Amino acid sequence: MDIAVYLNAMIALFVIIDPIGAALIFHSLVPVDDMRHRVKMAIKAAVISSTLLILFGNFGEPLLHKLGISIDALRISGGILLFYTAFHMITKDTEHTSTTERKDIAVFPMSIPMLAGPGSLTLAILLFSKASDYQGTLSITLAILTISLGTLVMMILSRYVKKIIGRTGDDILRRFLGVVLAALAIQFIHDGIINMAHV
């Protein structure tokens, strides 16, 4: 395993997925007193999203190639999309209201578009496209599984996360991660433009 690739992928995924923010939203979508339902929804969401990220990350580029889309075009469009996401993370206010309704929220909205949304799926393709060998691919796959596991734990313990971090803490963290994500987005756009200019 390539530790540098693993850490780079994990940081990028942590920023775009935001496990703490996801846990707070998860907490507002499932009944507080139904622990069995909470665990079931958390596991289902984590499994679906990690599977989507790994499959789309590995096979998304060949699919794009079939459609005549280059990875550098994806870097630029993905960077713009990530910047749009980052802009909303910084400027948009989120409302977290609790519910007593017992429903399946694993696929929508938890897996898609929250955990495996357009931003994270694009990021997965870009990360896997940079992997030059089996070690790199394994490192990125492990990073996805690590973040998914961390998000799963956060969702299961979301009632405690909400008590510890509170709304103010969530706002601060979300806006800080938005700034980091914006910088990552600009880097993707820069790399795409430079690579296309050299073709």
TrEMBL record:
Pfam families: MarC
Subcellular location: Cell membrane
Keywords of this entry: Cell membrane, Membrane, Transmembrane, Transmembrane helix
TM stretches of this protein: 6-30, 42-60, 66-84, 105-128, 140-160, 172-190
Record keyword Membrane present: yes
GO cellular component, one term: plasma membrane
Membrane topology term: Multi-pass membrane protein
Family statement drawn from the similarity comment of this UniProt entry: Belongs to the UPF0056 (MarC) family.
Protein name: UPF0056 membrane protein
